[in-house]
Amino acid sequence: MQEKSFVLKGDVCCSKDPKTLAFQKDGFLVCLRGLSAGVFAELPARYRALPCRDYSGRLILPGLTDLHVHAPQYGYRGLGMDLELLEWLDTRTFPAEARYGDPEYGEKAYRDFVEDVKRGPNTRVCVFATVHVPATLKLMDLLEASGLKAFVGKVNMDRNCPDGLREKDAASSLAATLEWLEKCRGRYQNVRPILTPRFIPSCTDRLLEGLGRIQREYGLPVQSHLSENLEEIAWVKKLCPDAAFYGEAYRRHGLFGGAAKTVMAHCVYSGEEEIRLMKEQGVYVAHCPMSNTNLSSGIAPVRRYLEEGLALGLGSDVAGGYATSIFRAMADAIQVSKLRWRLSDQSLKALTLPEAFYLGTIGGGSFFGKTGSFDQGNELDALVVDDRPFNGGQELTIPERLERVIYLSGDQHIEKKFVAGRALW
Amino acid sequence: MQEKSFVLKGDVCCSKDPKTLAFQKDGFLVCLRGLSAGVFAELPARYRALPCRDYSGRLILPGLTDLHVHAPQYGYRGLGMDLELLEWLDTRTFPAEARYGDPEYGEKAYRDFVEDVKRGPNTRVCVFATVHVPATLKLMDLLEASGLKAFVGKVNMDRNCPDGLREKDAASSLAATLEWLEKCRGRYQNVRPILTPRFIPSCTDRLLEGLGRIQREYGLPVQSHLSENLEEIAWVKKLCPDAAFYGEAYRRHGLFGGAAKTVMAHCVYSGEEEIRLMKEQGVYVAHCPMSNTNLSSGIAPVRRYLEEGLALGLGSDVAGGYATSIFRAMADAIQVSKLRWRLSDQSLKALTLPEAFYLGTIGGGSFFGKTGSFDQGNELDALVVDDRPFNGGQELTIPERLERVIYLSGDQHIEKKFVAGRALW
């Protein structure tokens, strides 16, 4: 089905706000030229001429957004999980990423990543590539062809990483970035570049300053890491003694929200000042519960961020996380919030199912614009999920079925997937 | 393949002890009349006449043991996960279990549970049924036919649960237990009965005393719950003011190890005295990380239990947990141990991959006798896992491949499964 105007019939469910699910049994979801025209209990006469796909008995849900994922780490997900962040970067990440200097290797490896995401529930992804321009363009080509929507970043790093991976200096990193941006120009419909300084320890001030200039010139968004791990934070403090807190080290170069739309992964240990600045600047938090668990980083105070009204979504952070699915990230976000409540801070209640669903749909989706729910005018990303195999004929409400999809479904239960009104398969 | 003497060729891996993996690339695992004759780099001449199945390139692992699972809760796994233990029992568990008064319903529902376990990586399970004798026998019949090995318990509960589920009094609960045991006699090869007082709050002293008598008369094993949740523990204290700690309330009726082989689920909050008594009495701990997370119970100090040398295995605790696979329980056990270390107690290091694998194989398997590894003379439970789909041609060591199986594999990757030398499919 390549037409972008059609009707889907089924049991439709999406978030209204973090506390509220909207759902319609045997509803009609109308797509007009890739945008949602809304959900209806009866199909309005004006839409009756549109092709209608009958998915009665299945759930129709919004596509999910992965706000933080490392494509080159996909190949070694689920390996070396007994390590903490800095040791894991040295042992696993950097040697693996160095191989992407060979664009042919990169294409082959990135193909596996893109195929996985295409089969799964995510429709939009915010992706780190590596420092290498040719392989990054291969990744973007593959994502473009997949029909997924993506922000993709060529990574910048000019210090504190192995020779085979470190860019020679700030100037050559910036030159490679400009070359990459030139090559992106006019090349993609679904994929957009995003500036990607890896994290403060791997970027000199000169590099960050230059990226700030490029940001202003090109009006690009920014992604990076923030306050993930205690050792990392101590290191940043040493590297930037004049920055009052970690986020400040980005902000002073214009890489922390405001005009530069920004998403920062983790924020496990953001303090009061950092939270205030993120709020002021509209910085998105990509909460990555599985990665923060696997790398023993800790548990981010997501309830606090929700209460503050921070922009907030979920990230798989493969390969800190071992699964790409944002359904899994929803389940994990709930689980770790329960443990945080029980073990360390009873002032912040656990996340609820509707809240986690909101974060994985509208929360992260809004980084891409109007998407993540079926509100009229939104770009229509939808999943048709056949939850009958694990419901065994039980009579369940739509919210109950949603809960089971989040906890129990696998990619094999996704019957059909649409991104901005286009069927991916 | 119904013959019980054969050879499996492939990449064999099992635990030697909690710290050590034993593995053999292109090895030969020999099964003689259901027992392991060992693993060999070259096939000894004396076994060359046996039928040999070539699983080159796949991993051959021991079957896993689920030390704690509620079969009647399988149908609502992944539902109501926003509740804590006592509320969840009232809202979800008791109404669901009441339906097993109808043996036909029970047979249908139990069939789904048994099919799931049969397809997955577990070969041995310690199962709670409900109070109902006919449905419990149906479950045992289904498990017997599946080829899985199981301990199954008709549950006892004569207080603090809804009318439809509560047994009238201690005498009738004991009479039903004896009736059930009589009906089990001579009926099963793979399945054995286990005494199953639900937990202290639902059993009067008279009932526990009677179960202690039955235990001594029949020499049966025992399973129950222990020190799972703070409210539950406070309740037990109120109900048994003269018991110094929770475990003591079982012990004084002869239901806590010693001659009564016992497994207690959870032990999240076991104190010094309770730990000492468990050790003295050889009581098994069934560590259920996913359930303890979902029900906001907390995180058990498993490293401590390992160091003390307690008997210890893993449980899915479906439906406090939503997944039956003990591979998942291994991953969860590692993850929660990392969070426990990070958030509340840096004196207990996180579990390692070999330790988690040990717990899910030898640790729990030993409750069933000699099984859980390929040591000579052990009952041979084996899984053939095809990990090629997620390794994408990478050259990995066997321990690395094992790590990825634990984190990434699903039931679809299990190519073949043997229990005590018998192929299940």
What CATH first level of the largest domain in chain A would be assigned? Alpha Beta
What distance lies between the first and last C-alpha atoms of chain A, to the nearest angstrom?
8 Å
Query: What is the CATH superfamily label of the largest domain in chain A?
Result: Metal-dependent hydrolases
Biggest interchain interface, per-side counts = A-B, 41 and 41 residues
Shape of chain A: globular
Query: What is the overall pLDDT average of chain A?
Result: 97
- The fraction of residues assigned to DSSP E strands of chain A is 15-25%
**Tally of individual helices of chain A:** 14
Biggest sheet character of chain A: 7 strands, mixed
The counted number of beta strands of chain A is: 17
Multimeric status of the protein: homodimer
Order of adjacent strands in the largest pleated sheet of chain A: 3-2-1-4-15-16-17
Identify low-pLDDT runs of chain A. none
**How many distinct domains of chain A?**
2
* Portion in helices of chain A: 25-40%
The CATH topology of the largest domain in chain A is TIM Barrel
Specify the CATH architecture of the largest domain in chain A. Answer: Alpha-Beta Barrel
Taking Cα atoms only, what radius of gyration of chain A do you get, to the nearest Å? 21 Å
